[in-house]
Write a structure and sequence with these properties.
alpha/beta, Rossmann fold, 2 domains, ABC transporter transmembrane region fold, 9 strands, 3-stranded antiparallel β-sheet
Length: about 600
């Protein structure tokens, strides 16, 4: 079984091969279109329409404020008292108009961003579980830290997309409105502005280009550090038993060092970009005064035109130099889009297993007694580089059982994963019941957060069993002391992972099995932490239940609880014998 990639891809190769801008834009369009054509499209399009309308209104109010401010300054320069108070009234009126428009503009933006985040997160979570993508993506070189992409990257994407959309729209409105204002003042000023903006944009791209790659790597390395901390919390007891504090401490320091190095490089390039953009912005403060100042001195314009020209120049310059002013934020945004798109492209849209279950329900089963059948199945590792078991064939019918034995590394658990559909890289013919009729008991059971009832009914809390039925099964698997420990309260919530021993957790897994009663069960070292008496008791209950099962184990005492024994060889060969045949051998000797 593959192991999770603790560190994720830490080499810089993945960051060096990021998709070009054209592909990133296509990925952005695919993700965005999915939301605005989803079931939430009416609400989303309504919010967007209101937001665009308010954005245009904000631009219009800014133009009105420009003219109102110009007249106000002109009346001050003329020392006209009556006109001063009238201009002040109009100026304040534009403020009164701007306040509600600006407030609801921001409110609508946040509501649309929240709706988008909710839909996109739910959509990705659904696809994350489709066809066990969460299992398949473990250690994938293409998608590191999918949990961070679903949580943090989705939030950044939805908020930043709307922010950039509105900045772009406001810039377009500003460009159209204030270019006309500047043109009425001086055509030379307009020409200088656009030439200055072109130089600034080109300079920003050349200086800040490495920031996109660094931003992508920063997301990755921050997520690696966070995962390392979570892994220590989840494995605290094992680390304590091994006294592995020093090793884990060094691992976290290494992860932190990678974050620091990448951040230091980002700071370096931000400094270079900042030197350029700050010089660019300060020079922009002087340019309109250099052009309009002499015009005022010559008496060609009034004093208020100077302030209007400065304000309009700043507005238009900001509109046409978005790359200059937003390059740092834009580089981080593009990196986030690439990471989100990488996850999107590696998730399946439909659940093929659910579709298979629905189709099977419509078919008539020819041999209802047959549950599992393998014909010439070769079990191969997911990456396809090694065959573990070759040409395996056997049939298992209702109420029958099979024990898989062999040396470590011969593929015992891998056979279970192949039958259960977790591994699909092998070859041959395989028949098995639908997933709803299967249940898997691992060596270390998964303990969820929740009540004792939730724990016992996982993952089907809707079974609707009574408290009496649940407590009867607990008593049957020797868990009565656990029940008493929580004062016979099935709704008590405790930290079950740390409260229950591994042996108790394995008995909880058997309680889940008997409460659910599937057709078939896979037991992967499911009694390894139990004493012989408890193991024998649970297998006797399992045999009497009528559930067919396949076990993986090393103990010879397991043989008597199974009808057939599959022995795997390191070479990939195998042999099946009956348990009765194996139990006779010692007696014959």
């Amino acid at each position: 079984m593959g192991t999770p990639n603790d560190k994720g891809p830490t080499s810089e190769e993945s960051a060096q091969t990021k998709p070009p801008l054209g592909r990133t834009l296509r990925q952005f369009w695919i993700i965005t279109r999915a939301f605005f054509s989803s079931k939430s499209r009416r609400k989303a399009r309504g919010f967007l329409a209101v937001l665009l309308t308010l954005s245009l209104a904000v631009g219009g109010v800014q133009v009105l404020m420009s003219y109102a401010g110009r007249d106000f300054m002109n009346d001050i320069a003329r020392k006209d008292g009556e006109a001063y108070w009238r201009s002040l009234g109009w100026y304040l009126a534009t403020f009164a108009l701007a306040v509600p428009i600006g407030t609801y503009y921001r409110w609508t933006e946040e509501r649309l961003a929240l709706l988008w985040r909710e839909w996109l997160t739910q959509h990705l979570i659904k696809r994350y579980f489709n066809n066990r993508a969460y299992y398949r993506l473990r250690g994938s070189p293409n998608v590191d830290n999918p949990d961070q992409r679903i949580s943090e990257d989705v939030r950044n994407f939805t908020v930043s997309t709307l922010s950039f959309l509105l900045i772009l729209l406001n810039s377009l409105v500003t460009l159209i409105a204030f270019t006309g204002v500047l043109w009425t003042i001086s055509g030379t000023l307009v020409a200088i502005l656009f030439a200055y903006a072109a130089v600034g944009t080109l300079g920003s791209i050349l200086i800040g280009r490495p920031l996109v790659r660094l931003s992508f790597m920063q997301y990755q390395k921050e997520a690696d550090l966070r995962y390392g901390l979570v892994r220590i919390r989840d494995n605290a007891e094992s680390i304590a038993f091994y006294r592995g504090e020093k090793r884990e401490h060094l691992d976290l320091i290494e992860r932190l060092a990678r974050v620091v190095v990448n951040t230091r490089n980002t700071i370096f390039w931000n400094r270079n970009l900042g030197l350029f953009t700050n010089s660019f912005n300060y020079a922009a403060l002087v340019l309109p005064l250099v052009i309009v100042g002499p015009m005022y001195i010559r008496g060609q314009v009034e004093f208020g035109v100077i302030t209007q020209a400065s304000g309009a120049f700043a507005q238009v310059l900001a509109a046409v130099t978005l790359i200059v002013t937003q390059f740092g934020v834009l580089s981080a945004y593009l990196a986030g889009v690439q990471r989100l798109a990488g996850l999107w492209e590696n998730l399946d849209e439909h659940d093929a297993e659910e579709e298979r279950i629905e189709k099977e329900a419509e078919l008539e089963v020819e041999d209802d007694s047959r549950l599992v059948k393998l014909e010439d199945v070769t079990v191969r590792t997911p990456n396809g580089d090694r065959d573990l078991v070759t040409d395996l064939s056997f049939v298992l019918k209702r109420k029958q059982s099979l024990l898989i034995m062999g040396d470590s590394g011969t593929g015992k658990s891998s056979v279970l994963r192949t039958i259960a559909g977790l591994w699909s890289s092998g070859s041959g013919s395989l028949e098995r019941p639908a997933l709803n009729d299967l249940m898997f008991l691992p060596q270390r059971p998964y303990m969820i957060q929740g009540t004792l009832r939730d724990q016992l009914l996982y993952p089907y809390p809707q079974l609707g069993l009574s408290d009496e039925e649940i407590s009867a099964v607990m008593e049957k698997v020797n868990l009565s002391d656990i029940f008493a420990r929580v004062d016979n309260d099935l709704n008590r919530v405790v930290d079950w992972t740390n409260v229950l021993s591994i042996g108790e957790q394995q008995r909880v897994a058997f309680a889940r099995l008997f409460l659910r009663h599937p057709k078939f069960a896979f037991l992967d070292e499911a009694t390894s932490a139990l004493d012989e008496d408890n193991q024998q008791h649970l297998y006797e209950l399992l045999r009497k239940s009528g559930i067919a099962y396949i076990s993986v184990g090393h103990r010879n005492t397991l043989i008597r609880h199974h009808e057939q024994i599959l022995h795997l060889e390191p070479s990939g060969g195998w042999e099946i014998k009956s348990s009765a045949e194996l139990e006779k051998k010692p007696a014959e000797k």
